[in-house]
Amino acid sequence: MDAFFAAVEQAAKPSLRGKPVVVGGLGGRGVVSTASYEARKFGVHSAMPMAQARRLCPNAAFLSGRFGAYRQVSETVMGLLRELSPLVEPLSLDEAFVDLEAGPYGPALAAAGPAGGPELVVAIAEDLRADIQRRTGLTASVGAAGSKLMAKIASEQAKPDGFVLVGIGSERAVLSRMPVRALPGVGPATEQVLHRVGLMTVADLAEAGEGELVQLLGKAHGAGVHQMSIGFDSRPVVPDRDAKSVSVEDTFEVDLADRDRILHEVDVLAARCVARLHAAGRSGRTVVLKVRRFDFSTLTRSETLRAPTDDAAVISETARRLALAVNTTGGVRLLGVGVSQLADFSQEDLFAQLVHEEEAAEPEHEPESESGPGPVEEPVEPVVPVAARRWWPGQDVTHTQLGPGWVQGSGVGRVTVRFETPGGEVGRVRTFAVDDPELQPSEPLPLTEWLRQ
DNA sequence: TCTGGGGTCCTAGGACCC
DNA sequence: TCTGGGGTCCTAGGACCC
CATH fold of A385-452, please? Predict the structure, then answer.
């Protein structure tokens, strides 16, 4: 999908169409998640500090994300992809690989031969793009090729709102002139290493050979980069990959210095992490604490338990213990709590299993000596988040008299709302007291009639 | 007003085991 | 009388992706 989050906002909010839109963290330490193409003209791009984006493009609309709405659109798009093949591998909310050969067009594609069938592929891709446009009101770009590598590169070239086919056999011709950075997996660090020895293009990499690349980049990465440089990629499209870790983290508006405050935030994060674990019906054996200090130095500390757990108290205590061993003088900018080595069962299953075993073995009952009575469990759940401002830019609201709209901004006891809907005209703006009882948060509206079911 | 959040994969050293 | 060679697990960090 093209500029996905920003495009959803423009589709939902008529007044933003054709205008620069920036979606991302609105706090003092936020970064840009997505910039619309209009905002990109000003130099705004993903991962840029929001403060810099505001300087570059002060007249843009700055919105925090509405992930529920993005997820809705994403599901519609993924559904369309699954009509093309059961083998759909999502990379994120707005991007996926599809193995066309495994789907209804597979036989026809095979019959057209390895280099043939471009007409059919073009037709499939353009139909898909039209369907996505019809169903979501948004544009998508499609790359088609004989491998994930080349399809990905083709889709980059197709953006925005386009289609690019890399025919079988033309991979090296397409790749050769590209900068090394165009290969997925070659980021700033790798690029620097390669540039330092004069390797600038993908053709240079192919010529250098696997030996030299392994020497420069290490075994796995070097071999992988070399394979890509000669256009070789045999990775299959894999749907439904199980997550290998679950983590949550928070950057604070102001660095945390107080030890008790840090421990409290660790508890809050552990609770959020456990909630996600529960929702996924999984447990984990390794607890990871992440700390980013005032100077942006970042470290992790982990502890592997004897068995997987999804118990909030166990994960909280472990994370706190790890936190106590970290030097936090100078202040903490970010804290994170994660769990890995995931197992497919939840704690309830484990207990049930344990009880069974104990009943079968001997009636002796050893109390869980985990921590005895220990410190009283603090109520970590109901803590009001710092960002509990009731109104945030972009938020969906409904007014009892004026109907649906969205928050443009709020401050000094006031909130400004624009009343417009996806299918309607550019709406008018009204301002209310922040505690106006006639104004309530509401659910995102569907972008098109098609999404309305 | 410097630098989010949620992931994946790889490497390297030390402990430990056979 | 002087220290092999593998394998696995754990921990920590780093690069990269969206």
Answer: SH3 type barrels. (2.30.30)
